[in-house]
Amino acid sequence: MNPTYLHAMGHFHPENVLPNSFFDSLEIESEGAWIEDRTGIRSRRSVLTADDIRDMRFGRKTLQQLREEGRVMSIADLSVEAWKVLISRYPELDPKTIDTLICGTSIPDFDIPANACTIAAKLGWGCLSFDANSACSSFVLDLHVARQMISTGVQKTMAIFNPERYSLRMDFTDRNSCILFGDGCSAAILSSEARPGSLRVVDTLLYSDPAGYDLVKVPEGQCFSQNGKAVQKFAITRTIEVTEQILARNNLGPKDITYFTGHQANLRMITSAADRLGISTDHHLHNVAELGNQGSAGAPSVLSMNWDLFKKGDLIALAVVGSGLTWGATLLEKT
Length: 335
Prior knowledge:
Distance between the termini: 19 Å
Shape: globular
CATH topology of the largest domain: Peroxisomal Thiolase, Chain A, domain 1
Radius of gyration: 19 Å
Largest sheet: 9 strands, mixed
Structural class: alpha+beta
Helix content: 25-40%
Number of helices: 11
């Protein structure tokens, strides 16, 4: 069984910043202090401008109109920006050696073709391209799939992209949900080559509870909705559980890991889970306070944003939860 190494990562967040004060203009009774106290989130990014969102909120424009006006950044465009960061860290990489591209996203541009194909076309690649989606758990799902394919030797070098644009499917009259989300994208490159400075994928773990499929959803032609109370409890419980499980599988405990990060749902949720795991503040990495809940892009973008922080021998545990219900974890070691 071939090992799997994560050689470099990239991230991108759109330039449109939406501070908590922005929501005052939507007239949804959500004061900035209330948002931060409830969620720990201070701002988020969007592929839409503040004016675009206000136009949608008050019925002056539809998402389709914004698309037709060229005001919506595509999944492929988001991914290219994240790739630019990745390739700056791995300039010797020859893209022609990449034989597979996986895309995991909650808000696709297309039902068909696979959104991965649009990314590959934009980058000028001719590789196998497919989507593997599990909502906010998609990064670990994609990593798990890539690890299995690389381990058999069938695939050699694989790229993973997790572009998210929840702002396109938000009900901006729903103050309980629209305040949480931001847009972004992460990118990763993997192979079986033991390249210095890479993160070795020690283990991956995945679960689903399909009975909870309707607790978090984006139905066709509709907006995001969730049972917030049930989802919060699920997120904290499963984050703790799956982190403890993946560590136990590798004869480790929370005190053995150097850093921890989780699904960037909201700062209160992920901090609660980290505290219960006994992980101190200086070992808990997150970006949700400034970037909001970025769906599947959240946790991997934390890795990318802290790429230069990791030292040889560091162990990083990453746990995610998502719609489905799904949850999973990966354990990484800096080489």
